[in-house]
Design brief:
With about 325 residues, this protein is an alpha/beta fold. The chain has one domain: UDP-N-acetylmuramoyl-L-alanine:D-glutamate ligase. The protein has 10 helices and 12 strands. The strands form 2 sheets. Strands 3-2-1-4-5-8-9-10-11-12 form a 10-stranded mixed β-sheet, sandwiched between helices. Strands 6-7 form a two-stranded antiparallel sheet. Helix 4 links the parallel strand 4 and strand 5. It starts with a helix and ends with a strand.
């Protein structure tokens, strides 16, 4: 290969609009699919280069009877990021954050967001403010203030579930009107796009996702219905946030990105349930191991989602 040709190829590669690099900071497990294990694979098959920092690394998710592992602190986070920065390899197009279990670690993330934006002012930050679900917090309450005051104002896209939206805004969401009110409060904090990934506001047998975007003063609101499946899933929120990041980047269209993301998550869920029930046998409740997301087996659905659910303008 001649030097001239090599230069041309390098220019084509570096100037490619698909050259997206994601720094993903969230939990991870050795076995199973939650946190970074749930988010990295779909991002990679969709063409994103992914760097991961594990806020915790456990043997398996906490729904098993036993889990063991390590919890990173703010100093650990600083050490890893300083290594990237010292080598000038901290240029990212996207930041994705999920489960973080300590206040100091979350505060450090806020510092890192600001530093990443100095390196790349066009950084897109997708924040999944993982704090709890179904009326119960599973992180220390002191994290809530950090999310409200520091993290959410830095985010471009935020993807809380219904309970997390209530906690962030102090709005009790009992109707769809309540949800839109809460989402506007989140917009006012800073994010241009707010997506409530799941809520109990739909008709019986359904859950509802709501999405809102404000661009140059123009508002978009969408509602999308999904079937409620009475099983316990772990890692679906992490999958949702990762897929939404990818498809918003690719399609530049909130409606289409929401439809593709929901269709992917539902395809993975349906495949997981069928597999788990078959392993458990008739009349038996699937174990946590049997209910691990069938993520790898859903590669085709992730790459080329068949839209099964329509996002309706509101």
């Amino acid at each position: 290969m001649t030097p001239a040709r090599f230069t041309i190829l390098m220019n084509v590669t570096m100037d490619s609009p698909d050259d997206c690099r994601v720094l993903s900071i969230q939990s991870s497990v050795v076995s199973g699919y939650v946190g970074n294990k749930s988010a990295t694979f779909p991002l990679q098959v969709l063409g994103f280069d992914v760097s991961t920092v594990n806020s915790v690394q456990f043997s398996n998710h906490t729904g098993y009877k036993v889990f063991k592992g390590q919890v990173l602190n703010a100093d650990d986070m600083s050490c890893l990021y300083d290594g990237l920065k010292s080598n000038m390899i901290h240029h990212y197009t996207h930041l994705l954050t999920g489960y973080i279990g300590s206040k100091s670690f979350l505060e450090k993330v806020g510092e890192i967001v600001k530093d990443l934006r100095e390196q790349n002012p066009n950084l897109t930050y997708v924040c999944d403010p993982v704090m709890g679900d179904n009326g119960k917090m599973y992180v220390p309450k002191e994290l809530l203030e950090v999310y409200r005051e520091v993290i959410v104002p830095l985010a471009d896209i935020v993807t809380p579930n219904q309970f997390e939206a209530e906690m962030l805004t102090e709005v009790k969401i009992e109707t769809e009107a309540d949800a839109w009110k809460a989402m506007q409060i989140l917009h006012d904090m800073g994010p241009k796009t707010v997506v409530i990934s799941s809520s109990d506001l739909g008709p019986e047998g359904n859950i509802v996702g709501l999405a809102s975007s404000i661009t140059n003063g123009c508002k978009e609101h969408y509602r999308i219905n999904m079937p409620y499946i009475p099983q316990v899933f772990v890692g679906t929120g992490d999958l949702f946030a990762a897929c939404l990041l990818a498809w918003i980047q690719k399609d530049k269209n909130l409606k289409v990105a929401l439809e593709k993301t929901v269709s992917i998550v539902q395809a993975v869920i349906q495949r997981t349930v069928c597999h788990a029930l078959r392993l458990a046998g008739k009349g038996n409740k699937p174990t946590p191991e049997q209910m691990e997301l069938r993520l790898i087996q859903s590669k085709a659905d992730i790459e080329h989602p068949t839209i099964q659910f329509e996002a309706v303008p509101v």
